[in-house]
Amino acid sequence: MNLRKLAAAAVLAIGGTMLAATPAHAANIASNPGFEDGLAGWSCTASSGATAVSSPVHGGSKALQATPQGSDTGRCQQTVPVKPSSSYSLSGWVRGAYVFLGVSGTGITEQSTWTSSPSAYAQLTRTFTTGASTNSVTIYVNSWYGQGAYQADDIVLDGPPGAGAPAVPTNVTGTSTPSTATLKWAASEGATSYNVYRDGTKVGSATTTTYTDIGAPAGSHVYQVTAVNAVGESARSESVTLVVGNDTPQVPATPTGLTGTGGTTTATLKWTASSGATSYNVYRDGVKVGTATTTTYTETPSAGSYSYQVSAVNSVGESAKTAAVSVTVGNDTPPPPGTPTGVTATVSGTTVTLKWNGASGNPTGYNVYRGNSKVGTTTTTTFSEVLAGGTYAYQVSAVNPTGESAKSAPVTVTVGPGDPTSNRVLVGYLHASFANGSGYVRMADVPKEWDFINLSFGEPTSVTSGDIRFVRCPVAECPSVEPDADFIAAIKAKQAQGKKVLISIGGQNGQVQLTTTAARDKFVESVGAIIDKYGLDGLDVDFEGHSLYLNAGDTNLSAPTTPVIVNLISALKTLKAKYGSKFVLTMAPETFFVQLGYQFYGPGANGSADQRAGSYLPVIHAMRNDLTLLHVQDYNSGPITGLDNQYHTMGNADFHIAMTDMLLAGFPIAGNTNNVFPALRPEQVAIGLPAAQYAGNGYTSVAEVQKAFDCLAKGTNCGTYKPRGVYRGLRGLMTWSINWDKYNNFEFSRNHRAYLDALN
């Protein structure tokens, strides 16, 4: 789980040992790193109010100050020329509640880090390597949504400098004709392309040193040229003036780009304007049927297929006709299906079964809604799911390629009490591959209170290899570590007591990116080998850092396209198929990857958001029918907006109530009501917490945790936040970690085990 190293540092601090490192001298290639020249060289978001202040500063006389506003995190950034395949170190001094320092555009892996230091400057550092074709990177600093002003100073990018923007083009000359202007110039060193400007406005680009401006308006025009490469664009060249056109009118050119679309009763044509045209003639099957003065035309012929052409006209004459386009008029598209009727619901134990009559209009499937959330799709006229105790309202709609019908009348069912007390679980992570300052715990000595024991961690041989290895803690770090034979025997003994033992993949240091199908297949093979060797019950997915992200345009929850997402889903489904119904699958994402999806999903429409935001959602959604437990880490988190559209901060009951309510009520992704993350079943959800104050940021007292559970599972003891329902089947609690709980005199496990056992 996150901040593994931070927790170890905390133990050193408790023991009175403080270590200090002297930073190496940096050959800084960032411009205006201390903001002594104001914001020169930096670009800041419009609403951040970014400015250079004289206090507080870390060094020199100035520092940056910016303030997040709404969805604007107050980002300031600059693009720096770098060399391909080279190593760099990024550092900076920051001050504020939550401040992030990072770099994008490396060509390999984006890097960022953060700290919370509201009263004093703290240093952030990150290293990275540029890709083989990377010539520039963007370094940035920003805060978090809903926070106050932050400061940043002395930003250092240490590494070999790259080439800058290319030189200004020289020797620009030009010639003109009645309808064109042609420019030529001398090549600029380092340029990969050139931009051409007419009268101050960019009109085209070229990869050679010549450009013809076709169709320029008649008259005198001033032309300039700039050189472009990956770093940026040069200043504009000296200007050259060219005169286009003559005094003799010409027949307009034939229109281009003709397209046509047919509707139920109409045919609509569109085309690109012809220079010098005053109107256009429209021909259907060779016969003129109309005239237009714009570049669009609509008519209402009888149903059938037609061939259309367009010509351009002025006082001199008429151009040749365009190539023909075919348009079909008439309604060949079926209407949406009818609304399903006769919806009934029956309950058997905790299983709800719906049935209905087939809808008219040839539906291809049916959507099932529980409350306001879509919970399933089926091609038959029946649907079943298992629920915790409570009362639920269902509706059904029919779909076909044309659209979706109205929802049926609601039908209400009541399910009996939720899972028995014995199914309330405690999930804990066991430091099986390291000690981390908390001390090693032998498998045989794991206390009886724990129901799920997650072995931490399986990690990859490299970020993109997919080859997962589980290496048990070495004797040098864990003197009391047991032999493999004893370890495996203890696992079997725990399983005989009804416990589940899983391998947890990832953690803070184990970044896993399944970017290829080869990495996916290696992941399946290597994880299966670990499960088989130790006789484990399944897998816990604890991907953190930059393991998961969404590419631009990947916005459909049900049909993701980003390779690291698609390949992980495929790998998990393969493992599930291999081990069958007894395979246990759990996940432990951070709030950034799940609940933040209510506001932000991937890089967003303008590409300015963090591409990791909400990136666990398509994985959870794809595996929801195979998912045993989801225990989001309600810690190491910035403020998160809940379903009440208010920010919630970790460390109290309201935060856990709000975050859990989002999972059990469902929510629209990035505010899009047509792209909804459906609710999970209560028995699939546990609350994730640190076991002690030094196990992670966001420690919550025993009383506040149980207050949150009371509110969610019983509807009592609620605070300011009111959940959307009562979730009697809420499964239990997860913590990082079993070792830190022992270090803290078993405060977490003994108090919460007694509480869960007494719930019913």
TrEMBL record:
One Pfam family, please name it: CBM_4_9
The record's section on InterPro entries has: CenC_carb-bd, Chitinase_II/V-like_cat, FN3_dom, FN3_sf, Galactose-bd-like_sf, GH, Glyco_hydro18_cat, Glyco_hydro_18_chit_AS
The alphabetized list of GO BP terms reads: polysaccharide catabolic process
Q: Does the keyword Kinase apply?
A: no
Please note every region of biased composition (Polar residues).
64-81
Signal peptide (from-to): 1-26
Q: Where is this region: Disordered?
A: 56-81
GO MF annotation terms: chitin binding; endochitinase activity
Q: What is its EC number?
A: 3.2.1.14
Q: Which UniProt keywords apply?
A: Carbohydrate metabolism, Glycosidase, Hydrolase, Polysaccharide degradation, Signal
Which residue range or ranges hold the GH18 domain? 424-759
Residues forming the Fibronectin type-III domain are 165-247, 251-332, 336-418
Q: Which PROSITE patterns match?
A: FN3 (PS50853), GH18_1 (PS01095), GH18_2 (PS51910)
The superkingdom of the source organism is: Bacteria
Q: Which family does it belong to?
A: Belongs to the glycosyl hydrolase 18 family. Chitinase class II subfamily.
Q: Tell me the protein's name.
A: chitinase
Q: Which organism is it from?
A: Streptosporangium saharense
